[in-house]
Amino acid sequence: MEMRRLGRSDILVPPLCLGGNVFGWTADEATSFRILDALTEAGFNFIDTADVYSRWVQGHVGGESESVIGKWMKARGNRSRLVIATKVGGDMGQGGYCLKPDYIARAVDASLTRLQTDYIDLYQSHWDDPDTPFEDVLEAYEKLIAAGKVRVIGASNLSASRLFEALAVAAREKLPRYETLQPEYNLCERAGYEAELEPICSRNALGVISYFSLAAGFLTGKYRAPADAAKSVRGKGLVDKYLNERGLRILAALDDVAQARQVSPATVALAWIIARPSITAPIASASKVEQLGDVLAAASVNLTAAEIARLDAASAWKD
User: Fold this and answer.
1) Which residues pair with 88 in a beta bridge?
2) Which stretches make up the NADP-dependent oxidoreductase domain (predicted)?
3) Which uninterrupted H or E stretch holds 6?
4) Is the residue at 245 inside a domain?
5) The CATH number of the domain where 116 resides is what?
6) Helices 29-41 & 289-297, crossing angle to 10 degrees?
7) 90 in Cβ contact with 54 (< 8 Å)
8) In degrees to the nearest 10, what's the CA dihedral of 82, 32, 239, 187?
9) Residues 53, 97, 141, 223: which is the catalytic one?
10) Residue 60, exposed/middle/buried by CB under 10 A (0-12, 13-18, 19+)?
11) What is the DSSP letter of 51?
12) pLDDT at 299
């Protein structure tokens, strides 16, 4: 399998990352273990989670996903063969996003405890905290790297201007830099990444691991009419957002390529992201083992230039 470098680090990952947001939520512990077993049996080892997963569920406090992953790694004894990415800074009850140094120091220890490991491969700032200077944030991460608790750092949900500033501060102060960016990116949501973030990432050799790679399930093709979307809580939010002329045009293009290749639309949607030179690995989750096959198949689908052009045209976001 092709392996790709995370930024300028020495960490190599496959071209797909399994999202852990569902673990301990829509996938219970037993199901999560089966999904994770199937992932590694297929030769993949890159898993992304966050301390805040899944605090949004009634009765949850956050850390549920990390705890499931930690129990699974402990049971399988496979920590050294995995690349584990998690995040800090989401609202874990402190009332907002926070990247203050003392908070990061406490949060990383809590994540390490839940993950039952002594190091995190990729530790990411989940959200921007404009009240905390990048100098302070990066110095906090420098200490974690020196202590062996973190190998590489990354950022998620940063604007282009803030990403540029963070990289500038790291260079000027000789502090660890963000080696990766985790933005929203898929066939439906292209402009936010391609317009400003992609040039910065490419110029600075940042690894990019995109989230919402299947547009909250829309690109699987299961939501094709308002009646389809009404069948699930997740689907209801897609009616106004994607069930329109452009969205249906994208689905039609996915159908054409998928049918020709005898794979699913989801597989093609992920393969399109993988084919973009600036992308390291899209993140996709599965709440059932049966869903994982379509996700992992994307790593072995090499789209032709004509297929990419067809999808590009259908999803075009600018004239």
Assistant:
1) 125
2) 15-314
3) none
4) no
5) 3.20.20.100
6) 30
7) no
8) 20
9) 53
10) middle
11) T
12) 97
- What b-and-e string marks burial along 153-185, b requiring 16 or more CB atoms within 10 Å of the CB? bbbbbbebeebbebbebbeeeebbbbbbbbbbb
For residue 20, the number of C-alpha atoms closer than 13 Å in the C-beta half-sphere is 29
Cα 152 to Cα 222: distance, rounded to the nearest angstrom:
37
**230 within domain boundaries:** no
- Domains of the chain: total: 1
Spatial distance between the Cα atoms of 180 and 123, rounded to a whole number of angstroms: 10
The pLDDT value recorded for residue 288 is 95
Decide if 223 is catalytic: no
Q: What is the pLDDT of residue 227?
A: 82
* DSSP one-letter code for 316: -
Range of the domain at 155: 4-182
Amino acid at 175: L
Residues pairing with 123 in the sheet = 86, 153
Which residues on neighbouring strands pair with residue 130, listed in sequence order?
Answer: none
Domain assignment of residue 238, yes or no:
no
Q: Which residues of the chain have pLDDT under 70?
A: 231-236, 238-239, 319
